[in-house]
Amino acid sequence: MRRSENGKRDIWIAGILGVVIVALATYLLVDHRSQSTASTDSPAVTGHHSSLARLHPHDPLALGPVDAPVVLIIYSDYRCPFCAKFSRDTEPQLIERYVNAGKLRIEWRDLPIFGTQSVQAAKAGRAAAEQGRFWEFNRAVYRHAPDRGHAELTDKILLDRAREAAVPDLARFQTAVEGDRLLPAVQQDIQEAVAIGAASTPVFLINDQPVVGAQPLDVFISVIEQAQR
């Protein structure tokens, strides 16, 4: 029975990674620039996608009020060093300056592009979200991420991060990570990212303005301020 469940999970993950590989291949044909130097006007991501904001009042993968004038959607991978840089250096300042003032809503999307561990981490984030600890888990993972290279995120490490994030029921968390119940939600996020041409991480949509890569804080402030006008 256990082998059958693992086989089913592997098929799901293979399908998800297949979608990502196709998206990456398309991206490489369109735009050869490095994700670390991408700019706010990258042709790999098309604008006018503010309708992608889900605005669910009780979405555990979101911060800020649903009626905020600006919505920032993050397409991110837990193993991405540039995503970690944004989480550590930029996101806290955006929260303090805009989210806490009711001017900005942040919505998370999973875009796991760095293999099976990325997919497992995406499921882990959602497993933490089910217990009201998504952002705590999210920050715990990125807090330990290396400045370069991809973080090692085995199931054991994910469990350690859940413990650090004070996820109350670790057995329930582990069961969710090992199973395939949360994979369709991850796949939905990937399909959304592919639809707008996002095949690298991190990618952001600020209302209808794409921002690609871990840009300096001033870039985000400029786009947010412009979106409020």
From TrEMBL:
GO molecular function: oxidoreductase activity
Ranges where the Thioredoxin domain occurs: 28-229
Signal sequence, start to end: none
InterPro entries reported in the protein's UniProt record: Thioredoxin-like_fold (IPR012336), Thioredoxin-like_sf (IPR036249), Thioredoxin_domain (IPR013766)
Keyword Metal-binding carried by entry: no
Repressor as UniProt keyword: no
Alphabetical keyword list: Disulfide bond, Membrane, Oxidoreductase, Redox-active center, Signal, Transmembrane, Transmembrane helix
Residue stretches spanning the membrane: 12-30
Family: Belongs to the thioredoxin family. DsbA subfamily.
Designated name of the protein: Disulfide bond formation protein
Source organism: Mycobacteroides abscessus subsp. bolletii CRM-0020
